[in-house]
Amino acid sequence: MTGTKNNVQRNFGTNSVNYSKKDEQSAPTHGISKETESQESVKENTKKDLLDIIKGMKIELSTVNVQTTKPSSRRQRKSVEATIGSLQKTLEDAPKKRTKSVSPELEAAASAVADFLRFDKQTTKSELLRQLQQHEEVSKTQKDGERTKISVSNIISDMKVAKSATGRVSTRPVHQIQFDEGTDSLMGQKTDDLKKSLRKNMLKGKRLNIFYLKTVTEEAPKTETAPSLWDVEFAKQLAMVNEQPLQNGFAEMIQWTKEGKLWEFPIDNEAGFDDDGSEFHEHVFLDKHLKDFPKQGPIRHFMELVTCGLSKNPYLSVKQKIEHIEWFRNYFNEKQDILKESGIRLN
Amino acid sequence: RWLRFRCKVCLTLTGQRAGPCGQAPNCRFYSGSATVPKVERANVTGIEEVVIPRKKTWDKVAVLQALASTVNRDTTAAPYAFQDDPYLIPTSSLESRSFLLAKKSGENAAKYIINSHPKYFQKDIAEPHIPCLMPEYFEPQIEDISEAALRERIKLKKVKASVDMFDQLLQAGTTVSLETSNSLLDLLCYYGDKEPSTDNHFQQSEKSEELEEAAEENNEKPKKANHQFGNLWRPENNAERIFALMPEKNSHSYCTMIRGMVKHRALVQALNLYTELLNNKLHADVYTFNALIEATALSAHEKPEDKWNNILELLKQMAAQKVKPNLQTFNTILKCLRRFHAFGKVPALQTFREMKAIGIEPSLATYHYLIQLFYHHENHSKGSSLIIYDIMNELTGRKFSPRDPDDDMFFQSAMRVCSFLRDLELAYQVHGLLNTGDNWKFIGPDHRRNFYYSKFFSLLCLMEQIDVTLKWYKDLIPSVFFPRSQTLIDLLQALDVANRLEVIPQIWKDSKEYGHTFRSDLKEEILMLMARDQHPPELQVAFANCAADIKSTYESQDGRQAAPEWPANSLNSIAVLFLRAGRTQEA
User: According to the UniProt record, where is the region Disordered (chain A) (predicted)?
Assistant: First the structure.
């Protein structure tokens, strides 16, 4: 504990001129805000010395050594890579960089505070870090020169950390996740602002101004032509875009139904069977076709039996039944002389 | 008396129904009911209007669709398309591809046999008749030389036969109508004077896709791209000859010629033909303009600024001729702008805004081109654009239908960008969009689906907590995609970070199933992770079993390869693990 404190004090002592000894010796909790402000004033007034950077890095090493959490090598590297990557990807934004550059020292200070206060170290540390980050967001002025230098210092400090962190054994992801969450939330806030600004860019802005809505929505009288080969093939290509292997048996059945291979649900017994549009009474009541036959006598009997049989026949169509009766009519007409001999009247 | 009165009224109401029944049954009926006062009121108010609702007509697949919507994906089963014989269920992406190809080629072989011997397959016992199961006729029936014969051959897509028929017709002196000649030109231009390929769609589309992508990467060497395309427009081919022979040409003839030329990469001729069209005071249609835009963009040896100006010129002419642009117009422009890299960003956004201003709704392909333009090749020298967030905000919650053949490339590029930006929230957004409605169909063919899910899962391993990652692991693998060894290595690293190394033997078992038994990098990773630290004893036992398993795979691998490769690290790790588990003998 004391070791840390000494280190911390050494750090602040070498850093800037504006610090007074009183700040260091008073309880660090009171001093945090003052330290923040003073450090910010340092940044804004003086240029960051490279020596300070290096010393800052060393302190980072030692404080990291002393902390109870020991990030594993790979995770550290990954998070460092992720953070370096994310730094490069996002637009250069002052507050973020400053947070990164300040945080090693502030982190050291925060850890010292946490140690001092002796309660849950992790939570106090994370709370303090969050406070500091909020401070950073509030103040937005930054000089360009400082920005680039800080980014360089950033990278160096991060790199140094990675090198020293080899050989760590046990993993404690909690600390790392908190740290990363801090940076992620920061990035999230930043990207929200950027999103808003870019949204204006994507949807609003200059257009080509070649086409106008009015002329385009005018419906020119279209002559309907049959789709040409190009259209047909294009439609086939479009249909193929959406093609995916079938996901379940019902989808397969749907495809078969569309191809015509499967009966349509709900099952209709008469699907596809039209019967020439004739109704049941045309099948059953065939008396009207017997008008040309004699009204009495054996021929009538016979034809009534024929119609009775035909009305019960489900296999013939109406036309076929009428043809049947027609055939009988022709037959009896031909055989008139035989009938006359046996004395049967035809009319 | 009161009862009888009621019954009389009931009779009038239920006149049709009751028929000759006497009063008594009705009385009995009504007196038995508990709601006596209500019934009285109904009688008093008179006969109410019976509103017959309009009959609903259902689609023929409505019942099946309703049933299908109740079935969700089973994460423990193989996808439905693979469920045939349990032995044949594929366990890796190679196997699944060959499974699907085998299935499709079986169907094609059967169809081929039916169609080449139609006389054996004439019996039709299906009632009602199923036309698609009957043999198809591919040979032209009409033998005499007439225009009808020509039209039949065109319909059957027989290029050479129709050209011959056309020549015969001309020799015989009959004039061919404009329509028929136009459709002949269509046929010739679309297929580039070659017969339409009878290849399976599978292989054909894959080949052409790869050629496309390779061609685009080699855009600085146009000659190479031309050769790779294979089906070039030969000068003085049949299409041009017939075009010259036609006595009258209307705009359709010119248009189809231009489109054919652009399709087969005869760009300069297409542009020349366009000037001829204008000289003849004819109008081109929107498809022709799309083809011309593509021609302008593909022409070599010009700077991007000049090409862009030419495209703008074409657009202005289009507006002057009152030709309405459609979605393909803008998509073609964006596709061509993609090649201009940095220069293309501003024009692309302008085009996009124009499209929205006119009221043409952008499709997924539009967004895909935008993403490709802004996130080209993952170089981030100046900080990458944040346009993906805008795009996702626009698209969230919308359902799409296919409007452009390139619509299925969107999700792959979106996930690539998410993985590049290492943004898990965005990835969840993209995945949510994929799962809305029917959008899952836009995931594309196999390799794109695998790419999408590999990237998604790697991002999860990198950024998400381990419990959630393991849940996704169980959900996605193997029912949606088969992991590559790199994906499994990512998962192992995530486990390492989260200190859940006890899951490793399970992962090893899974990776054996997915065909990674002989991937040495995966095995080394597993062994190294297990051997690195000391663990509680039961875990050691499990690890040692796993190590023994891996050792046996190495030994069996020796049998397959001439030179055994036992990486030194693996040997070390195996020895250490055996020692820890007390299996000193094996060590």
Answer: 1-45, 66-103
Nearest to B259 among A188, A230, A252 (CB): A230
Q: How far is A151 from chain B (nearest CA, A)?
A: 14
Rounded to whole angstroms, the Cα distance separating A183 from A95 reads: 12
Quote the CA–CA distance of B471 and B75 in Å, as a whole number: 11
Judge: A266–B63 Cβ closer than 8 Å, yes or no.
Answer: yes
Q: Does B83 touch chain A (CB under 8 A)?
A: no
Hey, how many other C-beta atoms are within 10 angstroms of the C-beta on B208? 13
Whole-Å CA distances, B450 to A197, A246, B455: 35, 17, 8
CB contact under 8 A, B359 and A206: no
| pLDDT of B344 above 70 | yes
Residue among B486, B410, B481, B400 nearest B447 (CA): B481
* B80 vs A contacts (CB less than 8 Å): 245-249, 251-252
- Asked if A86 and A187 count as a contact pair (C-beta separation under 8 A), the reply is yes
- Select from A54, A64, A60 the least CA-distant residue to A167: A64
**CB burial readout B432-471, b (16+ within 10 A) else e:** ebbeeeebebbbbbbebbbbbbbbbbbbbbbbbebeebbe
Interface of A with B in 165-204 (CB under 8 A): 169-171, 173, 188, 191, 194-195, 198-199, 201-204
How many angstroms separate the CA atoms of A142 and A148, rounded? 11
> Searching chain A, which residue's CA lies closest to the CA of residue B466?
A173
- Interface residue B351 vs chain A (CB under 8 A): yes
Strands (E) across chain A are located at: none
Q: CA B395 to CA B433: how far, in whole Å?
A: 8
Q: How many CB atoms lie within 10 A of CB B421?
A: 23
| Cut 0.80: pTM above it | no
| Domain boundary assignment for chain B | 353-436, 520-586
Secondary-structure breakdown of chain A: helix, strand, coil percentages, each rounded to the nearest 5? 70, 0, 30
pLDDT lower than 70: segments of chain A: 1-201, 214-224, 345-347
Task: Check CB contact under 8 Å for B441 and A229.
Answer: no
pLDDT of residue A169: 37
Dist. CA B31–CA B5, nearest whole Å: 12
- What's chain B's Rg over C-alpha atoms? 35
